[in-house]
Every structure is written in structure tokens, then in C-alpha cells.
Amino acid sequence: MSMTPSAHQTMLDQARWRWSESLFWLLSLAVLFVFPSKALLFSQIAIMGLFALSLDLILGYGGIVSLGHAAFFGLGAYAAGLMAKHGLGDPLLGLAVAACVAAIIGWLTSFLLLRGSDLTRLMVTLGIALMLFELANRMASITGGADGLQGMMVGPVLGLFSFDLFGKTAYLYALSVLFVLFLLARKIVHSTFGLSLRAVKGNALRAGAIGISASSRLVAIYTLSAAFAGIAGALSAQTTQLVSLDVLDFHRSADVMLVLVIGGVGWLYGGIIGAIMFTLMQDWLAGITPQYWEFWIGLVLVCLVLVGHDRIKIAIQSIGTRLSGKGGAA
Which residues contact 211 (CB under 8 A, 6 or more apart)? Predict the structure, then answer.
């Protein structure tokens, strides 16, 4: 795919690392030392952020709507969990196997999504997740069924850092994996492949007319997204040392979709910011109103949809401009 010099320069400008991004990741690391008692909560935010990032790759950049993304999360969780149960508890090996298992299933099922409308894709992805859920439930001798996997023994990260009860190692581990995979995703979406993928999302027929293979790109991004989701599931299994049918449940797919809507689709930081907002709201509201916290999160979602992310961004930029203007005048 050839580009004009101006288009190439625009892509380079978009890919350039900004100081605000460095600040974001430094703050993500610093919160562990400021709020050490919340390490377990922060690790769940990092895992949810990676899960949302994986969904954004297919929804925000590929235009593939999925209501069954928990299928890959659950596959990764069970792959890592079964390894830890049978004496292969090395965390990085578990991540690699989980990524491979989820990627293979993602590649095999991606061909079902190449034809049909968004509604067809919704039904197919939902059906795959439901079948895997029922399969895990039926194969209780392997998965543990409703009781979950028992006897998981996860080894130290790199053979040096054991998981502690306070969750500090879990958070640093999850944050490190999230950061590495975020850099990979950032590299991909700002490459010529990412540019062609957005062209396919915008108009697949027009993209095909200029020589872009829509099918191959959608298969590739769906497979990569499945691998990312599988790694997120493996992280969840390793940091909690618990895998149950919940990892394949429909509500997990719905939650990650909600997280992405809150943070913003088609923006890599959207899934991470959405995970921060969703998890912190859930934790806070569950402490205030344990029975009605879902109502308040739903209300926030309705407000976001009605107001729109663009208007919120404009309002924030306007406030920032006024504050900087006052600062300059002072």
C-alpha cells in the first residue's frame, strides 16, 4: 500500500510518542506506592484494560462487533490455569500458551465473520462464547465445572518475584504485560497495516478496489485480538489463582463492551481509561449501594451516550485552555 509524502508524514505524526503518554504510565506505576492497599484492585484494572484493548482492536479499528469476546478471555484463563494445576506454573510460559490457544481458536472462527452484517457477527460471536461456556461446564473433570479449577500453583515471575497476598507483584506483573502489549498494538495501528485496516472499516468495497484485501486484514486483526484477550485471561488466572465458569460468562463480554464505550472506541487509551473508570465506580458504588450499583453505572453510560465523547473532549479542552490562559495572565 503506497502513500503520498503528506500521508506518510501524517502517519508519523500520529505515531509519535507524547509526553502526556509518558506521564500516564508513570502515574500508573506511582499509584502502587501511593495506595499500596489497593494493589489487588489495580491489578484487576490492568487486566480489564488489556481485555478492553483487545476488543478495541477489532471493534474500533476493524469494525467487527462482538458480544462473545469472553470466549478468548476464558480460553486463556483455562489454558494458564490447567498448566499451573499440572506443574507448569511458570507465568510467562502460561501467557505464551494462552496466547497461542486463543489465537488458534480466533483464527479458526474468524472465517465465520467475513460475511454477513453486524447482526450476524453479533450472533456468531455470542454463539461461540455460549458453546465454550457449555463445553467447559460439561467437561467438569478437566475444567472443574461450577467448582472451578483446584490446586493451581503459579510460580514466581522470572523465577524471582513470588505473588504476595497484598497484590503488589500481581499489579506490577499485569501492568508490565499491559504496557508491552499496548506498545505492540500502538505500533500496529499506526503502521501501514493499521491504515489499511481503517480503510477496510470505512468502506471494504472501496478498499478492495485499490488493492487492499479486506478478508486477510480482518482475519489477522481478529486473531491478534483473540491472542491479547487470551493473555488477559491468563493474567486473571495467575494473579487470582482461580478459574471458574465465570471467565466465559456472557456478563464478562458485556462488561468489556461497556468499558470500551465508557472510555471511547477507536482510541487505544479508551479501553484502559474505561477500565479505570468502570472498576473504580464499581468498587465505590458497591460499597455505598451494594444492591443498586449497576443502576448508577447504567446511568453514567446513558449520560455518555446522550452527551457524546466528542462534546466531553471539547469541554475538557476548553477548560484546559481557559486555565492555561489564566495561568499565562498571572
Answer: 1
